[in-house]
Amino acid sequence: MLIQLLTNKYPGMRLWLSQRLSAVIMAIYIVFLIALLIIQQPVGFDAWHVFVSPAWFKLTTFLFFVSLFSHAWLGVRDVLKDYIFNPDLRNFLQIIVDVLLLVYLVWVSVILWNI
Amino acid sequence: MQQARPQEKNKLRPKNLNLFTIRLPINALVSILHRAAGMVLFLMLPIILLAFQRSVSSQSTYTALVEILNAWFIKLMLIGLAWAFFHHFFAGIRHLMQDIHWMTSLQKARFSGRVVLWLVGFAVAIFALVIW
Fold it and tell me: Which residues contact A114 (CB under 8 A, 6 or more apart)?
């Protein structure tokens, strides 16, 4: 019932919920990341490389960035809708943001893949 | 009595164009800073990604990155970035709590707003001490 409510009747609710879900995912990731950094203190390239190399680190980091980009997409969209009144200019800026975020997603994949 | 026409009505409205005479209530302040911090984080994304890439690519790019990050003005910018992150983080958690109807009365919201500002200040101060 809840799912139906979120998808069919009020399509905006899906975006609203996705922004909250991605926020929670990022918050959990960040808290664990900071805790791990404090505990392990990976100073120097070798220690840092060991820190970022495990598959679970790459996987969770990828999940973090996917959340971040979807979160940022909606956030910037709201900002553009609030302050840019010319529809052509707004659509143009929105396309730039969309392309940028997609490029970032590919970029992050490449970075994590090459570690 | 004749009804004032829209144009005439507008002339009677008080005008206050000096923005510095408007004091934002704390809830508005925390909220607009959350948005501003979010934009800062979004605009800084390419630099963050580039730094992350350099840090994991090789020994030499890592060393070069550390060299750059050690400059005092870069450290100041890092502190600014840390402010944007911590404000967005703590104010965002406050918004999530308000989404589940926790502390939504005006008085409690003002209190949680003050808590957020203190937490942000505290976190940024610790960050600054650690990197300096």
Answer: B56, B57
